């Protein structure tokens, strides 16, 4: 019974936070940031253990696989845009995906993290369902990967306005690519504040960055770790 209640509370809280985020556009109201904080605060306030809450949460977690399949919808919806900008997409997204993995591992190396933490950090720049799957393949810790993904999305969304101001004249296509490649789903939500073109491009960039990373990471990450002398 409480599992149903926990699902209901989680969904309602998420929709409320989403409503306020769209209304006030504050980065602190990002659902991916504020919703977990409010949930944790609520569990602590009412002295509810995570073991009691978790069965309902696991139902929502099981929807990650269908959510991955649903990524095909924007691919079909924006197929004409994809065909038109295909060369730009291929170059930008491959470079972005490779840079994200390399930079993640270099940062991990500088921080002297152990190999499992490095493997958990490597897929941080792709959407959560795909990142968790890649983390499992690499031997990382999926729950830790999910936290890295959230942190990456939040920081990417927060810093993107500063980057756009620094670059000055940025086209809608470039904005969408930057947000989709660097900040995945959170960046795509941020793109909605700029316009339909930015949102469409960010959606496609997020999907293809995830696909390319999923294909490259199982071979590329162990190769990089070997080069760094960590395996």
Summarize the structure.
By secondary structure, this protein is mainly alpha-helical. It has helices at residues 2-24, 31-45, 50-61, 64-69, 72-77, 79-84, 86-110, 115-121, 128-138, 142-167, 172-191, 196-227.
What would your notes on this structure say?
It is a single chain. The protein is mainly α. The chain folds into two domains: 2-62, no CATH class; 72-227, no CATH class. The protein contains twelve helices and no strands. The model has no long low-confidence stretch (mean pLDDT 86).
List the helices and strands and how they pair.
Elements: H1 2-24, H2 31-45, H3 50-61, H4 64-69, H5 72-77, H6 79-84, H7 86-110, H8 115-121, H9 128-138, H10 142-167, H11 172-191, H12 196-227
Helix pairs in contact: 1-2, 1-3, 7-8, 7-12, 9-10, 9-12, 10-11, 11-12
What's the Cα radius of gyration?
18 Å
How many β-strand stretches? 0
What value does the average pLDDT take? Answer: 86
Describe the oligomeric state of these chains in a short phrase.
single chain
Question: Count of helices?
Answer: 12
Number of self-contained structural domains = 2
Instruction: Provide the succession of SSEs.
Output: HHHHHHHHHHHH
Shape: globular
The separation of the N and C termini measures 47 Å
Helix content: over 70%
- Biggest pleated sheet: none
What class do helices, strands and sheet pairing give? mainly alpha
Low-confidence stretches: none
| Approximate strand percentage | under 5%
């Amino acid at each position: 019974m409480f599992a149903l209640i926990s699902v209901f509370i989680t969904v309602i809280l998420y929709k409320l936070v989403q409503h306020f985020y769209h209304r006030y556009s504050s980065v602190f109201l990002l659902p991916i940031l504020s919703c977990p904080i409010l949930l944790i605060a609520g569990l602590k306030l009412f002295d509810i253990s995570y073991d009691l809450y978790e069965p309902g949460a696991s139902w929502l977690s099981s929807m990650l696989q269908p959510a991955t399949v649903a990524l095909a919808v924007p691919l079909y919806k924006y197929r004409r845009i994809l065909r038109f900008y295909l060369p730009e997409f291929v170059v930008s997204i491959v470079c972005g995906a490779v840079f994200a993995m390399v930079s993640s591992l270099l940062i991990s190396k500088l921080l002297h993290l152990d190999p499992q933490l490095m493997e958990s950090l490597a897929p941080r720049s792709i959407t959560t369902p795909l990142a968790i799957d890649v983390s499992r393949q690499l031997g990382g810790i999926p729950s830790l990967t999910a936290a890295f993904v959230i942190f990456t999305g939040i920081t990417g969304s927060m810093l993107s306005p500063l980057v756009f101001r620094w670059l000055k004249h940025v086209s809608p296509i470039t904005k969408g690519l930057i947000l989709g490649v660097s900040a995945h789903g959170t960046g795509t939500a941020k793109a909605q504040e700029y316009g339909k073109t930015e949102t469409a491009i960010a959606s496609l960039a997020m999907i293809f960055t995830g696909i390319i990373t999923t294909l490259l990471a199982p071979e590329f990450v162990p190769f990089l770790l070997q080069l760094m002398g960590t395996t």
